[in-house]
Amino acid sequence: MNRFALIVFCFLLFGCTSKHDKPLSQEGKDIDSALFHYKRAREKTLSVKERYQAINRSYQYLKNDLEDSLYGPVLFQKSLLHLLSKEYDSLRIYHDQLANHAPKIKKVSLLAEQYYLMGYYFSEVEHDYHKAIENYSLSKEYYTQLKDSSRIGINLLNIGTIQKNNNDFFGSKETLTDALKFLKKPKKVAHCYNALATNHRKLLNFSDAIDYYQKAIHIEESAHDRLLYKNNLAATYIDSKSFDKAMELLNKLVKDSTLGRNQKEYARVLDNLAYAQWLSGLPIEEEAFKKPLSMRIQEKDKRGQIASYTHLGEFHSKSNPVKARSYLDSVIQLSKSLKIPRAEKDALKQLMQLAPKAIGIRDRYVFLQDSLYDQELKVKTQFAKYRYDDKLKQESILHLEKESAEHQLEAAKQRNQKIISYSGLALIVLVSVFAGFFSVQRAKRLKQENKTAKIEATYATEAELSRKLHDDFAGKLNHAMVLLQNGAPDTEVLNVIDGLYNQSRNFSRKINDIDTGPKFKEILFGMLSSYCRNTQLIVTGSTEIDWDKLPELSKKTLYKALQELMINMQKHSGATMVSIHFEALKKKLKVNYTDNGKGASKNNLNHKNGLWNTEKRILAINGSLTFDSEKGDGFSAQIEIPN
Predict the structure, then answer these.
(1) Minimal CA–CA distance to 71: which of 55, 85, 86, 90?
(2) Taking a C-beta distance cutoff of 8 angstroms, is the pair 383, 175 a contact?
(3) Where are the extended beta strands (E) located within 79-221?
(4) Distance between CA 311 and CA 290 in Å, rounded?
(5) Which key words are in the record (predicted)?
(6) Is 579 helix (H, G, I), strand (E, B) or coil?
(7) Which of 27, 34, 472, 543 is the most buried (most CB within 10 A)?
């Protein structure tokens, strides 16, 4: 169980009463007894055994009264106490009861806490990370309904940590970055920075890893946790071969009085210091590694023993291969007992260098590598699915709210029409004429609103597609998988994946939604310039345009139209000069585009989907787009849009 998860779980354990909870029912003698024992079960001063007995009594009074409002809270408390008592089969039984009872539970906070509890159970007890992500995601969804940003952030932090622990470093970075938007308390923010730093360290992005570790150290209030982050920072210096910085920091930590009170962390610092000294080329004896190992054995720190045995294996790999194999065998045995296949795989990798002809070692390494890859892929795929499903749910909620508002508006209109119909015979003719005129205008307005809504939906769809296309570069992804299967160096694989990731990000930004605020002109001209690095761009008439008064939809359409023209120029024309002239007419904005490229026949222009889509956008807002081009004679276009 990691320390942060324990802190958060205790927070839930001792803070189960939410500000969103409503008073419980107290009807009848049995209900009074159930309530009394329920309150005892939540009493922090009692032992777990006493609380366990109390909640069982409360449940006995209620099990035949499923409609009582106390039934849900009792089921949650039973789940919590079964978890604390390590009765995991019972925990799952009563969780299923509560989940089935969920439609009758009016306290959303109770469901949020229950699914958080199960996320913790699957993550820290069962190590079933797929179900852990599922339950943390459900908990986040309920806390989103409550607008409880702190708990939203904690769920995201837990999910991001699971992704990190399963080598989904890119996905973890995105999740943890989202978590930072919600986390408020410095301690939780520091934990998030520490996890982000580890992601960057694993991706060999040492400069960012160092920055995030330093941020965590700066805001962390606990001296003990600051020491942990400093040790992580020193390990990053070792990974980046900055041995002098690592030794300087670790020598300071050794003298820290706080460290002396924690033998487990003291051993870690000593082991890292010995490792840094050895890698730097300083003369060092085996005892420098064996001292922290002895401390770890005394403290029963098996994870720490894995690190010590690994370092000892490296230390003796050249001078005494037999001894090195003995230490690495210890790593493998501990890894199996603790169910840490990655540590076993790393040890097998070193053993293959010591015994390259050992087929059994090689086969076991390949098996672990494949199974770990499958597990990592499942985590990545599952979280992507939950993220997509969550987005669909949010869109569905917004759609229902919109429909409800429209129904209420329509009902209000119908009531007003009935009142008007009772007005009197003298106004019948006037009302009839007005109603006819109103109906015609309303039909026109609704038609225009419908057309506008479709256009805005198009832009929203494009923005959504840009995010989804982040994962659709199948060719490069297949290349990365081939590299992995062929055992290519980690740096080469990471370079391919990082390029794929950055390319998807850049493409997403390129087609994403447009800022139509005060900086629109600056953004528009920046876009134009980005396509003209090797082409001269001449813009005239822009200073005479009142950009702030230009409608938002016209700005978006103009941006997309000019962007498509610039893309067409860059890909097909080979132009060396582009001229764009803006002219404000009475009711329209006129834009003339010209380049000196090789042009194209009108028949070819009709088959360019980008230009065809551009024309559709402009026509939809009552604008116009005309082309004038012949092959070899350059290209020109005239745009007119409402202003």
Answers:
(1) 55
(2) yes
(3) none
(4) 10
(5) Kinase, Membrane, TPR repeat, Transferase, Transmembrane, Transmembrane helix, Two-component regulatory system
(6) strand
(7) 34
